[in-house]
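Friendly challenge for the regulars: who can give me the C-alpha cells for this chain first? No prize, just bragging rights.
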Amino acid sequence: MKARSQLYLLVSILLFLGLSLTMYKYFTLGFTLTPGKTLTVWQVQARIKFDAEDGPVKISMGLPAVDSSRRAIFNENLSEDYKFKVFTEDDSRKIVWSRNDAKGPQVIYFRGDFYHLGAPAMEATPSETKPQVVLDGPWKIAGKEILQMARESATSDLDLALQVLNLMDEERKDPHVRVLIEDVENRREYMEQVAKVLSLAGIHTRVMRGLRLQGNYTQRSITTFIQIYVKDEWVLLDPDALTQLPFSEALLWPENTRGLLDVYGGSNSRIDFSVSSVQKSAGQLAVAAGQKSGSPLVDLSIYSLPIRDQNTFKLLLLIPLGALVVVILRNLVGIRTSGTFMPILIALAFMQTTLLLGLLLFLVVVSVGLVMRSYLSHLNLLLVPRIASVLVFVIIIFAAIGITSHKLGWESGLAITFFPMIILSWTIERMSVLWEEDGPREVLIQGGGSLLTASLAYLVMISPHLGHLIFNFPELLLVLLAIIIMIGSYSGFRLLELGRFEPMTRGDE
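First reply, four minutes later:
Bragging rights claimed.
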C-alpha cells in the first residue's frame, strides 16, 4: 500500500473512532457538549410498612423503568437490618429484601435518584391492526354512547381520549358510565375500562402505574396513568388534570410489572413514596450513570482517577490544542518561532499569569537575559557551562522580580515562578546565537512569532467550551491527531510565502 493511501486510511480510522465514541457518549451516556448545564434530579424514597409474623420474611418491590431517556443514578438501601438484591427479568427490575428473624411492625426505606435527558426513548410501535375490542353486550353499547358524546367536541384522537376521561368521571353519575364502572374496585380497573372504550375508536392504549414528578411531597401513593398512541408516538395522559403529561414529569413502572409490592411472612403491608428535586451538574450525572452501568468509556477512563489527578489531566489535555495551533501557524501560515513547542509552554505559563502580565514578564526576563548572555559570549565558554550560567542568571532574575514586586506591593510579580526556567534559558541562548549569526531582525521575527503563537495558543487553551469538550470527550484527541497528520502531509505554499512568490505567477507583458 502506498504511503499516501496509508495516510488516508489512518486519518479515516482516527476520525471514525474519535467521532463515533464522542457521539456514543453524547447520545447514549448523556455527556453534554456545553459546560455548566444542569439537570433536575428527582429523589424518590419508598417506605414499606408491614407486620412481621415472627419468622423469616421476604419483600419484593418492582422498580421504575429506566431507559435511554430516564436514567437511574443509584439505588440505595436505607434499612441495614435487611439484605437486598436487585433482579432483572422480562425487561423489568425488582428489588428483594430478606431477613431470617423479623417480629412486629417493620419499616423498610429505599431511595433511588432519577433524571431525564429530554430525548424520548424509542418505544415499541403497536401493530397495524386495530386494537382488540374486549367490550361486549351492554358494556359495548355504553362505550359507544360515551364515544359518540365525546366526538361532538373532539377534533383529534388526543381530544377524544381526554373527552372520554372527562365523561367517565365517577361523579357525573351518567347511566352509561355506571354500566361500565359498576364492578370497578380500584383505579387501575377504572383506567382499564377507559382503555377498552378508547379501543372501540381504534386507539391503541396502555395502562401504566407511576408517580408524578411535580414539586415536593411526602407519603404519596402510586397512581395509574393511561397512554395512547397518536401521530406515531405514545402520549401520556393525566386522568386527574385531563391534560397531556410530559414523560419528564412522570416516573413510570414497566407495563409487565406483575405486582408492585409482595410481602411473604408478613401482613398489613403498605407502601408510600416521597419525592423531592435537586439540581445537579449534567456532566457529573453522566459520569455517575456511566459508572453505575459499568460503561468501559467511563469506568476505565480519567473519571476513575482521584479528583486531584483529574485536575492535572485537565491541564495536560489542553496541550494538544496548543500543539494544533503551533502546527497551523508554522506549517500553513508560515510563522517562524524560536523552538518548536516552546510557545506551548509559554502559553501554559500565561494560563497562570494572565496574558498581558505574562507577556510583560517574558519580555523583561528575555531582555535582561540577552544582555547577560552577550557578556558571556566574550568569555569563550563551552556550551554546557554557558547554558548553566544563563540558567543561574534566569533564576537570579526570577528572584529579583519576585522580591521587588513584593516590596512594592505588586503581588502579581510573584507569578514569574510559573514560567519554565529551563525553556527560558534555552530561548535566551538560541536568540543570542541567532543575533550573532543573522542579526537582530531575525531575533525580532522569531521572538515575535513565538509570542504571537503562544498568545493564540493561550486563547484557545483557556476557552471553557474547548476545555469542557476535550476533558469530557478525550476521544476527540484522535480527531486532533488526524487533523495534525493531514496538515503534516501538506507541502504546498504557506500563507506568508504567497507574497514572496507572487511575481512568479505573473505573465510576461
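The chain is about 45% helix and 25% strand. Residues 126 and 204 are 7 Å apart (CA to CA). Your move, everyone else.
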